[in-house]
Amino acid sequence: YDSLSGVATIIGFKTKKVLFIGIRNRYCVICNRAEIKNITPLDHTCFLNWTKSATGMEADGVAEGFLKSVDLHNMKFKRLIGDGDSSVTKRLKEILPYGPHFLVEKIECRNHMLRNYMQKLTAITKKTNYPIELRKFIIGHLMRFRTAIVRAIRYRKNENVSQTQQISSLAKDVHNTPYHIMGQHSNCDAYFCNKKTLADENLVLRAENCGMMMEINTIINRLVINSKSLILDLDNNICEQFNSLINKYIGGKRINLSQRNAYNARVEAAVIAFNSKQYLRAIMKNITTKSPGQFGKKFLKDANRKRLNNTKRRELFPTTSKNRNKKSGPDENYGLAEELPEDIYPEELEKQKVDFINKLREIDIDNLEKDTREQAKSPLWFSERRKRITASRVGKISKMRPYTSCKKTVHELLYGELNYKIKSIEYGRVMETVAKQKFEDIFNLSIKPVGLCVDENVPYIAASPDGLIEDDSIIEIKCPFSAKTEFNIFEAITNGKISFCQIDDKKCVTLKTNHDYYYQIQTQLHVTKRTKCYFFIFTDNWSYNIFIFYDVNFWNTKIKLQLDL
């Protein structure tokens, strides 16, 4: 995280060749010595091209490659296979290398997700507040958790059904894998389990009682959310292979090569070796325009023979690699996008605004709602939300003072995304499905899925309720992480665990009308043209429902006036 140099690489999926390298250097020995002596540095080729944090090198290097892809290769990179810990996606959303209508799709690396899954399961086995029998069972069957997911991916991706159905089925199978391994087979598919193991001990109930099952569901939820990436069954192993080659050329970071051109030259040599597979021959032919001599060819032929033999031996006789504990600290490169130059006149801005809104009016909102019913699993849902003010943002925008800067709010609308690593968000994602089932059991009502709903009169306002109920109602589900250990909602409000509700004089719980959730629900009701909302609050220990009705006066005075353009 304090490296003086770094390199970001873009490798073609089909060609397996390096298409771009972005090298960043934070140090130049000549400039540094001149600064120490307080003198002007001599004329020299300076390799210092990065002055920000080391954690931002990767994202900036990849972003440069995307910006130059058309000039270098006459193509646009539509998809990016990467690990989930990178800030590259955030950077690409900021710069939009191909414009706002061509978004780069992120595909999560299968190996990184499964490795992260294994690490978190291992961490559970070290928590002594869980029964020792359950912890021993998990650590003894650890690889089964991974193998079950790999098997599900292999089967579902070869099914002769639509990709949407493949993703949905895989998500269900992935969520069920811990239950299958721990002895509960009621939801196992026929291909996955022959149900002959029903006689095994069912550990699920014990795991649920002690809270372990909830934590396992929270961990596996990240895989469920990324089922779209898992079904593609892709990894970025080729990048790891290239990184190992770079590590070979820079000597494993044992020597400081960042003072002048040494780091750049060695990385470029690694690129030549990786792309040509004949480093010495390629360099010699380029410099001397002649092929190697007798002994040179003999050496290269012998080296190539050894390489091929090693490859065949590894395929025929695979060996288990030694586990190496790698330590790394979590970090990311924070910061807003660079300021845009003020080079547009008010008249031109007004014209562009009108043109943009008119384009939004041309979209078939009925088809848009149908095509985005998977919500967070749909790329279209993400791209269309970015063009509009959604219900969850209405409260913050409507309550802004006229003199409050909108810079951060606009940046959040355009580039912000949920961080599923935050425990409260992760908990809400896991519990939402459970909450829907609980609601249907209590009220004997069916929740219908709904996509992105757009206001037919104001095309830049949209909403995505958690579901539709009958012909006149919607449902909005909240699973507050802070109140999960309380015994009821009254205790949660009294202890300050729930801030969006209050207890009135009649000892009834109501939603605060000045809270963002109330603005969100009123917007959802207005956009969907419905009159009632089931505001369902759910935790492990209790649930509570609040009926909220559409208030046309609140909409007109508190929301519409503030959002009117």
TrEMBL record:
Lineage, top ranks: Eukaryota, Metazoa, Ecdysozoa, Arthropoda, Hexapoda
Organism: Schizaphis graminum (Green bug aphid)
Region (Disordered): 310-337
One Pfam assignment: Mutator
Domain Mutator-like transposase: 1-193
Protein name (Swiss-Prot/TrEMBL): Uncharacterized protein
Alphabetical GO biological process terms: DNA repair
PANTHER family: EXONUCLEASE, PHAGE-TYPE/RECB, C-TERMINAL DOMAIN-CONTAINING PROTEIN, YQAJ VIRAL RECOMBINASE DOMAIN-CONTAINING PROTEIN
Residue span, YqaJ viral recombinase domain: 381-529
InterPro entries for this protein: Mutator_transp_dom, NF-kappa-B_Signaling_Reg, PDDEXK-like_dom_sf, Restrct_endonuc-II-like, YqaJ_viral_recombinase
